[in-house]
Design a protein that fits this description.
Bound molecules: adenosine-5'-triphosphate, magnesium ion
Order of helices and strands of chain A: EEEHEEHEHHHHEHEHEEH
Order of helices and strands of chain B: HHHHHHHHEEHHHHHHH
Oligomer: heterodimer
Number of helices of chain A: 9
CATH class of the largest domain in chain A: Alpha Beta
CATH topology of the largest domain in chain B: ABC transporter involved in vitamin B12 uptake, BtuC
CATH architecture of the largest domain in chain A: 3-Layer(aba) Sandwich
Number of domains of chain B: 2
Number of helices of chain B: 15
Helix content of chain A: 25-40%
Radius of gyration of chain A: 19 Å
């Protein structure tokens, strides 16, 4: 199954990543690979270190050891801004929205559009109508929002609507890859479906996605490969075509031994 | 184990009804019953309305009590003049409070810079414009020190500025030798320092340049906070600093710029204060820090950060001025002015808490 003559290089290649929070070792010499054009699902128990490893990749936390290579280049992001400048977007598990700011302001925070001409270049004036137009367009595409509500403060939205804003923000700006940390956790059936369709859309635009989720049907529906994280390590990588959901859960929880390395799907088929 | 579950590669069965489901998405209609809930929502969206209403109401009430003398153009322009310095300090204070911080040192920065500019221009013969520029630079430097301690050393703003307040105050006493620089000496050597004491007369109203400066300071800061990306970042940081950082804001850099700008505004206030007081006195504006916080709080800017408009601080300063003027004209003892301001602060914070409940 695994192809050792594989020539495509991973977009993200993490080796021996370690992250400690005080005395807790959240990531313990873990590897991580994301390949071009794929949807990589990451599953694991609560506290397995899924959020920590993706945060290390996007610069939100700094790993204590190991190396991360993105597009063949070793990186040491000291903040998420540096990752973002490289076209990497992430939907955080806690969303990272500013409650008092409007939906439009939140979508463009840190990359605001200024008015053309001297109003923009000299007086730094924001082009609010343009930002609102784009934000409205992106949210309508996602079907999560009515169009009148774009200037509404995010704190007046429901949990699921907020999640929609965070997902739309990431999808709108990603150039290289997107990480989504439980993007459908708060969403209803219909809205989850939209996000899954969006994830497939993004893949068809050629942008790979890391999807962290506890929802096995979702994972098995969209994932090309499933990275199973256990006790801070990459435990196994499996092909969803060859394993059932209960197998995946059994491996994840330690009830079943992971398949031997040559049967794992360490790179795409 | 290798039983391929083809069905799991497609939508779930229960999702098939989605095709026939209502395609409308939730719209945001607030079916709030009752006037109180509506008012709460309105105020949540328009946080400056509270101070505006209080300002208008207090003008009407004191107008009724004190009569024509209160409404005379002279008295109204006098109120503007009297609040101008605290107003400028409140503008500086608002910037910091919007980031969920507090700056106890603004008035100390102001007095220190007025002493520095005065010493240089009046006693050391430095050209007045240069002396003022040095004062501005000093204000920025003092603000940078606050910003550095808050962001890089990670000290709480309250403690940081409590410390620098004392430091700046002591420096100011040392430089001034606890002596005032007399008004005549300023007039003779560097009249530019007192320019904001001059006024244009419109009828019986006397509008000082200092009052105009205060309005300009508020207008410029309002523009920065509401029309530029920097301003949005200030609000986002005050709201939730960690989220702002993750969302891609350089929070430390923005915070340092906020403290530096507050220092610059305080130094601009220093120039205006020389005109207002007529001399440079080390004992002036000792309570300016607290008075500026009072104006900000009465103006509806939340001490928890991220909420409120800087124009609220202008209205807050005016409310204090109106109360003081009205109670004085009504010949009420000064102690009752203090008493009334105390209640205003408490009521303002209570209203802020109430408005914030909308979201939770
Ligand atoms: N900021 C932090 N400070 C201290 N410990 C942390 C911090 N963040 C995570 N941890 C610890 O690191 C470990 C891994 O946490 P992480 O959030 O990566 O798990 P997760 O796999 O994303 O879990 P979940 O499924 O619940 O989201 C946990 O034991 C957690 O307690
Ligand atoms: Mg997590």
């Amino acid at each position: 199954m695994s192809d050792t003559t594989q020539t495509i290089e991973p977009i993200v290649k993490g080796r021996g990543i370690v992250k400690r929070y005080g005395r807790v070792t959240a990531i313990d010499h873990s590897d991580f690979d994301l390949y071009p054009g794929e949807i990589l699902a990451v599953i694991g128990d609560n506290g397995a270190g899924k959020s920590s490893i993706v945060k290390a990749i996007c610069g939100a936390v700094q790993p204590d050891d190991g190396e991360i290579v993105i597009d063949g280049e070793k990186v040491h992001f000291s903040s998420p801004i540096e990752a973002r400048d490289k076209g990497i977007e992430i939907v955080y598990q806690n969303l990272a929205l500013s409650p008092a700011l409007s939906i439009a302001d939140n979508m463009f925070v840190g990359r605001e559009i200024r008015k053309p001409g001297i109003m923009g270049s000299w007086f730094k004036m924001l082009d609010k109508p343009e930002m609102q137009r784009i934000a409205r367009e992106k949210l309508t595409e996602l079907g999560l929002m009515t169009v009148q509500s774009i200037n509404q403060a995010v704190e007046t939205l429901s949990g699921g609507q907020r999640q929609g804003v965070a997902v739309a923000r990431a999808a709108a700006f990603a150039k290289k890859f997107i990480i989504m940390d439980e993007p459908t956790a708060a969403l209803g059936v219909k809205e989850s479906r939209r996000v899954l369709e969006l994830i497939k859309d993004v893949r068809s635009r050629g942008i790979p996605i890391v999807l962290i989720s506890h929802n096995m049907p979702h994972v098995f529906e969209v994932a090309d490969r499933i990275h199973i994280h256990r006790l801070g390590k990459r435990h196994a990588v499996i092909d969803p075509e060859n394993y059932s959901m209960s197998d995946a859960v059994a491996i994840m929880t330690g009830a079943m031994e992971p398949p031997p390395i040559e049967q794992q799907q360490l790179s795409p088929k | 184990m290798a039983d391929v579950q083809k069905s799991t590669r497609n939508r779930q069965d229960f999702e098939n009804t989605l095709d026939s489901s209502d395609a409308n998405v939730a719209s945001f209609v607030y079916e709030q019953k009752g006037f109180v809930a509506k008012a709460q929502h309105f105020l949540h969206g328009n946080p400056t309305m509270v101070p505006v209403i209080v300002l208008v109401a207090s003008v009407i009430i004191f107008g009724l009590i004190a009569g024509e003398r209160f409404f005379s153009p002279f008295n109204l322009s006098l109120i503007l003049q009297q609040v101008s310095i605290i107003g400028i300090l409140a503008a500086a204070q608002s910037l910091v409070i919007l980031t969920a911080g507090i700056d106890l040192s603004v008035a100390a920065i102001m007095v220190l810079m007025s002493v520095i500019s005065g010493k240089l221009a009046v006693e050391l013969g430095v050209p007045a414009p240069l002396a003022l520029l040095i004062g501005f630079g000093g204000g920025i430097g003092a603000g940078l020190l606050n910003g550095f301690l808050v962001t890089k050393i990670k000290l709480p703003p309250f403690i940081t500025t409590l410390g620098t307040w004392n430091i700046f105050y002591a420096l100011m006493l040392w430089l001034s030798g606890a002596q005032s620089i007399r008004g005549e000496d300023i007039d003779n050597t560097a009249p530019l320092l007192k320019i904001f004491g001059q006024a244009i007369s419109v009828g019986s109203a006397r509008i000082t340049f200092g009052s105009i400066l205060m309005v300009i300071v508020f207008a410029v800061l309002w523009y920065l906070l509401n029309k530029t990306a920097w301003g949005r970042h200030v609000y986002a940081i005050g709201d939730d600093k960690e989220a702002a950082e993750l969302a891609g804001i350089r929070t430390d850099r923005t915070l340092i710029s906020v403290y530096a700008l507050a220092g610059l505004v305080a130094a601009i206030g220093a120039w205006a204060s020389i005109g207002r007081v007529g001399s440079i006195s080390p004992t002036s504006f000792y309570e300016g820090n607290l008075q500026s916080i009072t104006a900000v709080v009465i103006g509806g800017i939340s001490l928890f950060g991220g909420r409120g408009s800087i124009l609220g601080a202008l209205f807050g300063a005016l409310i204090v001025g109106v109360f003081q003027s009205g109670l004085r004209l009504a010949q009420v003892d000064v102690l009752w002015q203090v008493f009334a301001i105390g209640w205003l602060i408490i009521i303002a914070v209570a209203i802020d808490q109430w408005i914030r409940k909308v979201s939770s």
